[in-house]
Design goal:
This protein has a 7-stranded parallel sheet, with helices on both faces. Strands 2-1-3-4-5 form a 5-stranded parallel sheet, with helices on one face. It is α/β, with parallel strands linked by helices and 321 residues long. Helix 1 crosses helix 9 and helix 3 crosses helix 5. It has 2 domains: 110 residues, 3-Layer(aba) Sandwich (Rossmann fold); 184 residues, Rossmann fold, CATH 3.40.50.720. The chain is elongated.
Length: 321
């Protein structure tokens, strides 16, 4: 008996994330079932039991009457959750070690960049100016991580080992060994007041949209060796109020930012972020995960599910992540 088909609905992405590359990968790891790259005029929608998707068009998934599971190939599921026609089947997010490790690399790199005054040092290099400033220890800097999921916890633990004062905030209470934790709206201000470098790894939900704004930045600690707080957003572009970020950089409320995500991507050529001297910009590649690892992860989950096992890393549709 032929196993249910896996449909691929993939839009956009780099060459390594092209639909054709995904098709080749899934043909290899799901060789025991049909793998169909949509659109495919010869496909009977009733044959589709699984869908692997990246930025699907709203309504695309509604046409499969026997759909059993949706696998989102990226970490963020906000675009999927906004689809009012999304079938009420389990939705699985990517949570592979490769993604976690790459995000931790990014967070540690950019925390260290701001801690070790790299913007000033590179400016000095361009000016041929030999003028080192006092370098404070990591223990003098409070790093605050917004979002204590798998990514946030891993980054927090590595930063703690380097010597930073690390704390994390999440919507609901979480305990992480060796990390000071805060939760809920009532503890957010206390968390911000001890933070010199703010790292955002939050999911994008109606509650978090635009949360990175002037009100939040103004509550960050003002007395650290940095002079003014720094902010790193490697979560979602919709988390940040971009006008507030630019204004806060210009008036000193923020000293510097690292931004991997934006409200509009690719970032328009006329965006002030490209040339602002206090901005470190990356093209949404903080956790540019090994696509081979993702395809294996999906295939393993399908196999376990068909054998009667439980799906891992399910999205809570009420919370939106």
């Amino acid at each position: 008996m032929t196993k249910g088909a896996l449909a691929l609905l993939i839009h956009g992405g780099t060459d390594n994330w092209s639909p054709q590359r995904w098709k080749a990968r899934f043909n290899d790891v799901c060789s025991d079932r049909p793998v169909v790259l949509l659109p495919d005029a010869g496909l009977d929608p009733a044959d589709v039991h699984y869908a692997a998707v990246w930025k699907p068009v709203p309504g695309e998934l509604a046409g499969f009457p026997n759909l059993r599971v949706i696998f989102n190939l990226g970490a963020g599921v906000d675009a999927l959750m906004a689809d009012k026609t999304l079938p009420s089947v389990p939705l699985v997010r990517v949570a592979v070690d490769d993604l976690t490790q790459r995000m931790t690399e990014y967070v540690v790199l950019h925390v260290l960049m701001h801690h070790r005054q790299e913007l000033y040092l590179r400016e000095s290099q361009r000016a041929k100016r030999w003028a080192p400033k006092y370098q404070w220890p990591a223990a003098a800097i409070g790093v605050g991580i917004l979002g204590l999921g798998t990514l946030g916890i891993d980054a927090a633990e590595v930063l703690k080992r380097i010597g930073f004062q690390v704390a994390g905030w999440s919507r609901s209470e979480k305990q992480v060994q060796g990390i000071e934790t805060f939760h809920g709206a009532a503890q957010l201000n206390t968390f911000l007041a001890r933070t010199d470098i703010l790292v955002s790894l939050l999911p994008l939900t109606p509650d978090t949209r635009g949360i990175l704004d002037r009100k939040m930045f103004a509550q960050l600690r003002r007395s650290s060796p940095l002079g003014a707080p720094a902010m790193i957003n490697a979560g979602r572009g919709g988390l940040q109020n971009e006008a507030d970020i630019l204004a806060c950089l210009d008036d000193g409320t923020l000293g510097a930012v690292s931004l991997d995500v934006f409200g509009q991507e690719p970032l328009p050529a006329d965006s002030p972020f490209w040339t602002h001297p206090k901005v470190v910009l990356t093209p949404h590649n903080a956790a540019d995960t090994d696509a081979d690892a993702i395809s294996r992860y999906v295939a393993e989950q399908i196999g376990a599910f068909e054998a009667g096992g439980a799906l891992r890393n399910l999205v809570d549709r009420v919370r939106g992540y």
